[in-house]
From TrEMBL:
Family designation: Belongs to the YfgM family.
Residues of the Ancillary SecYEG translocon subunit/Cell division coordinator CpoB TPR domain: 14-206
Name of the protein this chain belongs to: Ancillary SecYEG translocon subunit
Organism: Marichromatium gracile (Chromatium gracile)
Key words, A-Z: Cell membrane, Chaperone, Membrane, Transmembrane, Transmembrane helix
One Gene Ontology CC term in the entry: plasma membrane
Compartment(s) where it occurs, according to its Swiss-Prot or TrEMBL record: Cell membrane
TM helices/strands, residue ranges: 21-41
Length: 209
């Protein structure tokens, strides 16, 4: 190739371009589509998350009103309809479930939590919903249902201490004080939330034997 004349080099370049020019243009076009498409998608997701966050903040303001259960339920439904693919929909459902339960609508709260467990885009949110569901089931006297909820969803080290606390409540409700004591101790050692309350429950258990 070093001995080619300028004419031969020019002809070789023209031939290569005839053979490969279309592919080069196609590759460049595809690359531009991917780059700009990716940027558009990222911008869309960022904007969607910002809107969902704003709606969720509105829910938190509503939750400060003790009589806002109906409002929270409607806001949660709207959040789910508009931003169901974001974690904010699940978070909104958790807030709504709390408001509904405090308003005496246990069945509606349970249904909302079950939906989060089934549809949450993040496993951690599903487990959080399961914890809250088990606590409501315990409070409502549905001990077998609570046990099933705990068994089905206590599969993560991050939540094991909190589930242990609920297991303690379940065992105490059944009169199995030894199991309750062991579960409470496990919860405290694992750093469960509200450890002081769990310690109080442990201290208030009747003495063994």
């Amino acid at each position: 190739m070093s001995y080619q004349t300028d004419e031969e080099k020019a002809e070789a370049i023209k031939k290569w371009w005839r053979d490969n020019g279309v592919a080069v243009f196609a590759g460049l076009a595809l690359g531009l589509v991917i780059i700009f498409g990716w940027r558009y998608w990222n911008d869309y997701r960022t904007d969607l998350a910002a809107q969902a966050s704003t709606h969720f903040e509105q829910m938190l303001y509503s939750a400060e009103d003790a009589d806002a259960a109906t409002v929270l339920a409607k806001q949660s439904e709207q959040l789910d309809a508009d931003f169901g693919a974001t974690p904010y929909a699940a978070l909104g459902a958790l807030v709504a479930a709390k408001g509904l339960y405090q308003a005496g609508e246990a069945e509606a709260a349970i249904a909302r939590l079950e939906r989060v467990i089934d549809d949450a885009p993040d496993a951690a949110l599903a487990r959080l919903a399961a914890l809250r569901l088990a606590r409501i089931q315990l409070a409502e006297g549905a001990l077998d249902a609570a046990e099933s909820t705990i068994t089905d969803h206590d599969d993560s080290p991050e939540f094991s201490a909190d589930f242990a606390a609920v297991r303690g409540d379940l065992a105490a409700a059944r009169g199995d004080l030894d199991t309750a004591r062991e579960a409470y101790e496990t919860a405290i050692e694992g750093g469960a939330a509200l450890s002081q309350l769990i310690q109080l429950k442990l201290d208030n258990l009747p003495s063994a034997g």
